[in-house]
Amino acid sequence: MRIGVLTSGGDCPGLNAVIRSVVHRGTDVHGDEILGLEDGFLGLLEGRARPVSHDDVTGLLTLGGTILGSARVKRDRIRWAVDNAQRLARELGIDALIAIGGEGTLTAAKLFSDAGLPVVAVPKTIDNDIDATDVTFGFDTAVHVATEAIDRLKTTAESHQRVMVVELMGRHTGWITLTAGVAGGAHGILIPEKPFDIEAVARMVEERFRRGKKFAIIAVAEGAQPMPGTLRFEHGQLDQYGHQTFGGIGNRLANELEDILGTEARPVILGHTQRGGIPTARDRVLATRFGWHAVEAVHKGAFGHFTALRGNEIQLVPLAEAVVRLKTVPPDRWAESEAVL
Amino acid sequence: MRIGVLTSGGDCPGLNAVIRSVVHRGTDVHGDEILGLEDGFLGLLEGRARPVSHDDVTGLLTLGGTILGSARVKRDRIRWAVDNAQRLARELGIDALIAIGGEGTLTAAKLFSDAGLPVVAVPKTIDNDIDATDVTFGFDTAVHVATEAIDRLKTTAESHQRVMVVELMGRHTGWITLTAGVAGGAHGILIPEKPFDIEAVARMVEERFRRGKKFAIIAVAEGAQPMPGTLRFEHGQLDQYGHQTFGGIGNRLANELEDILGTEARPVILGHTQRGGIPTARDRVLATRFGWHAVEAVHKGAFGHFTALRGNEIQLVPLAEAVVRLKTVPPDRWAESEAVL
Amino acid sequence: MRIGVLTSGGDCPGLNAVIRSVVHRGTDVHGDEILGLEDGFLGLLEGRARPVSHDDVTGLLTLGGTILGSARVKRDRIRWAVDNAQRLARELGIDALIAIGGEGTLTAAKLFSDAGLPVVAVPKTIDNDIDATDVTFGFDTAVHVATEAIDRLKTTAESHQRVMVVELMGRHTGWITLTAGVAGGAHGILIPEKPFDIEAVARMVEERFRRGKKFAIIAVAEGAQPMPGTLRFEHGQLDQYGHQTFGGIGNRLANELEDILGTEARPVILGHTQRGGIPTARDRVLATRFGWHAVEAVHKGAFGHFTALRGNEIQLVPLAEAVVRLKTVPPDRWAESEAVL
Amino acid sequence: MRIGVLTSGGDCPGLNAVIRSVVHRGTDVHGDEILGLEDGFLGLLEGRARPVSHDDVTGLLTLGGTILGSARVKRDRIRWAVDNAQRLARELGIDALIAIGGEGTLTAAKLFSDAGLPVVAVPKTIDNDIDATDVTFGFDTAVHVATEAIDRLKTTAESHQRVMVVELMGRHTGWITLTAGVAGGAHGILIPEKPFDIEAVARMVEERFRRGKKFAIIAVAEGAQPMPGTLRFEHGQLDQYGHQTFGGIGNRLANELEDILGTEARPVILGHTQRGGIPTARDRVLATRFGWHAVEAVHKGAFGHFTALRGNEIQLVPLAEAVVRLKTVPPDRWAESEAVL
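Structure tokens for the assembled complex are given below, as produced in the milestone run.
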């Protein structure tokens, strides 16, 4: 068969590992021809694609980013492409499409599938917020990077009291912050699912200092929100752009804590270091298995599904289930994390 | 309550993280007193134990090994201890016991539980061969170490053809070798579940060389077995002790391949580097959650159970289920790995 | 002999390795008694010290921070201590003092030495700004951490153009930023020794984008300064505290570039992750050798000197030479780095 | 100018970083054309070369191996090439040659230089055994890998006594073993420069056990030799090939110690993991600086020299000095390491 493959959405360690796996399984085992669509759905829209051979995927297991590129496409252009899905596929000469991407991509994949394009999707997000799968690749790598940072901060033992605020990725969900916070033993974990009381955080830190500890580490998700009206400073004072993604909350929280506690508070903003670089072994294996099963799904004609990890099994789940709801940190997981604060 | 905790069996990254979590949850939340039994069940037998406080577990998240020690105990001494379980517990003044260990420990835990000792167990094995849980802590770290080694070998690009044989842990199961082999992109993966044909391995390597590749990497589990009568050299030629655990198969395989192929073959024996050192973030979180739930199980009176990960949930499973059968690599997982050879 | 040892100044990976080495060499080889002064010179002032045995230093090779603590001491108290140096030493019962610290510590060490206290110093700074030694321990670790961050950023390949600004430590010198920038292949390297023209940086980035590159990475030292009057925004807009150490320049630079280029610019602020955690092998060896030679210097009576690395040799340098001038990045080194932009 | 570049000899992390640096400096700054000779001197002999552009070297900073390949060439063919050096250079159209390699390469480079070929050399060896430079790239990476392995072994804390033998690279010199042994805190360090007494090693281990330590780590260079007649077993018993490079001494030493001590002894053979993979930041910077200075040397006409690090300066040293003698571990360095055993 002639199988198109595309990657869509933001960076995620493991994307290239999926492409590699699709090529290995497709060409070596099924004798497929793999066509790489460039810049996500743009490649489908504009008929930009290139064959991807076994040699093309050498070394991709450890390479971050995506060799196929990825672009954001306006909704109306997607709608147009959906209306012309079968013709676009015919023009590219593909019998099926494997779409690798996040929630938006899965939603688009469903539209294309409903429009008669044979699509199998592979979920991708470092945020781990897709409900239908136990976990997504990229997440473990992000947690690994964040945990290493917290590890290093934990051994700073300067004699004067100090607070470290580590801002981690996660605009809508706190999975990275919760997991890295627990793995690193952060003393405070602030996530979007639970608006925080800045005074309560300050009191926790003071309590630690009273117990003779020299420092405290607060892990905060970029999307974590203070309870309304609890911050002392206007956002404007910090950043005239007001970017949440701009390391905003980490800097603001450090400012606030410094003001309340009268002790130094320093921010660490890991930013995109969490979504680049070499994937962890776990992410490489998950990505490789997803690619393998996506190819098998194509040959079984199981279109309109996406790959999901459940326990140790890879299952095929109807695309409809992908977009039911965002997987947020449930209260009981949050309760667990409090045990290690 | 007064809760005893012990670690038993071989090293496993994450043991200390469980102890830390038990102390945090038990003392901070329930006001328990945690008593650390020394050298596993020996501590129970000989009444050797010490209180473990919040300060005692500082820094344990990243520390390999176990601060409580671990010793092998002869079967008959275990039997004697089981017969005197309640008295021994009374003498130590513990209301419940949290036993952290591998298959043997879970088996012993069941005996003690049947004998009336309030026991909750936490499974531990880097081999990931316990069937009742999706995964055990320590496994991810072992895979991480093994994968890093394969990564480094993959970039050796000397002009003369060469075979690298990486021997990994796993006497009875191939989980570490399969997972690290897939994560690292090994060209051959040999595991105990599937006796290998040395000639077939050699032919695969020759095929790679024919395709112009400069080298091949074979990942082999220490317990992998060649098909009967397929090896050219007697074991005795290699090591008069005949230790399987002695890096035996890695060296032998390199010898054999060198002889068959007439090209250099070099072994890499990672040995205990796979079971020591800093646990990965994933292992720390799993170990921490297990400890948390073990304490909760004690307070719920859910004795005779052990903690297990299923999907994203920690569940309590009857000890009887722990020892039903060894979790080996199923043929379909093996089939997946062939896709990336 | 009875040798006192103290650590002074900010965190630096390798401090504990020096203490360990002093104890190993002193106790095992010379039969010395090592007395650890607490919180740097405060321990001398207040007579706070404890014996440090072979067992006390187990595991210190890989432990960040300092087990002896470190405190800032006001100048007048140092002056008072200098005036009473010999009495303080007598009260502690020490025959000699090994002082481990940065420029300030070496200056103080000289005062104490001139006042008749038998002192040998060990230089310490992650900034590598001490002129009399080729390098100081801690520096290699800071560069390692910073380089890993740049490595991860380099593989982010999102389709829309983006600038990453990585703020690194170095208030007065650019060694960490220059070295990590070269090691990581940063496209712009901004250091305190050379005020930067924000417009020139922006043009360089635009040139990269014109050549089809998807992103640019700017490594900037926390102490790097824009040429006067070249910034578009007031500092006050960013941070009412106006902390340079507050990740200030990284955020500001990202703001400015975003405004000039009209493309996303994101800051990464590594902060104290650069001065904590496990030292690199190189830093451990240098710290160990410094400790070894400091003890030998004491037994040779070579007081008033500090240990320095020159080529592969450890030499003893008069304390007077330590404080002649700050070692800044010379123009020819800067020229080299331009070659890799 | 048209500058040829070749890499010769075994793998060494940083080779690609030198090539990248030569291209960056040569093309971007001097407008040179860089011609990559394939498979070392074979490319010169057989006229196999290809242009290497700025795009060709993207990503090479972190890539192990060499994109130009490397081959061993028989002495007589080298002699023939030397006799025809100027003609071969003319046929390739190169004005100068930058040869990157080990001792053998520097020797060959001198012959070509004496024969009138404008050559500048860059020294390369993970063994760090070239006397004229403080250090060579590749060495720091090898030490990093070896030290991480020792770190992991050090936290194994099984209750029964055990010896770990870590075999490291170094057939003729012990720099890697000495440096990693000191950095990792190995309890025994055995190097080629100093034949070891197996009984003395055993006694040291027993002494450790007597002091209540659970384990001992012996770092041994592959080329370390026991004192004549001190081993209990014939080499033949271990490996009918008798490869020194075959992890021989590590396995043998473990066998011997197990037999003498009557306790488990396990080998770890890191093999080629030490010479592959991502270079450390230090090696990348050194390789980049060497490449930069090699290009400058070409444009200054400083032929017949090679780049060397002395202190923090890169100097040009006459090729004659490269091959005076092997840099072995001097007794005083050895004495230092004993302090930390």
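Residues 281-300 of chain D form the longest helix (20 residues). Residues 37 and 49 of chain D are 4 Å apart (CA to CA). Further analysis is deferred to the final report.
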